[in-house]
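Work Package 3 (structural annotation) set out to generate three-dimensional models for the target panel prioritized at the project kickoff. During this period the team completed the workflow that converts sequence records into discrete structure tokens, so that structures can be stored uniformly alongside our sequence database. As a representative example, we reproduce one entry of 132 residues exactly as it appears in the project archive.
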Amino acid sequence: MDQETVMRASFIEKQLGEIDQHIELLDSQIIDLSALRENLTIFSESKEKEILSSFGRGIFLKAQLQEKIMFVEVGSGIVVKKTPEQTLEVVENQLGKLEEARLQIGAQREMYYSELYSIIQKVEETKNKDKK
């Protein structure tokens, strides 16, 4: 096996490791947003006037709902008022972008696996020729 083939296989393995880490991160974010979507759906349909509000680090407060308006950070520390339905729309949009990114990275991953498999086949063919 020549040096260039070894370097290419090593590069592909490194890329695959990075892609796998990226996919794990995306999967985690997709799970979190999916849970948020479910909670928003339940909240928007609920008639309850009292909720448990997270204060942070596993601490919750009972809170009385005066209105179903949410304050959503839209970037750079900017917060805007949104209804649960509007917030759900934002979450759905983010979820769609993450799922699209997951598909693209998955396709890239398959391309690298295919190339690595091709390299392995060539190495095996070379070994078999050398044995004869």
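Strands lie at 50-56, 59-64, 70-75, 78-82.
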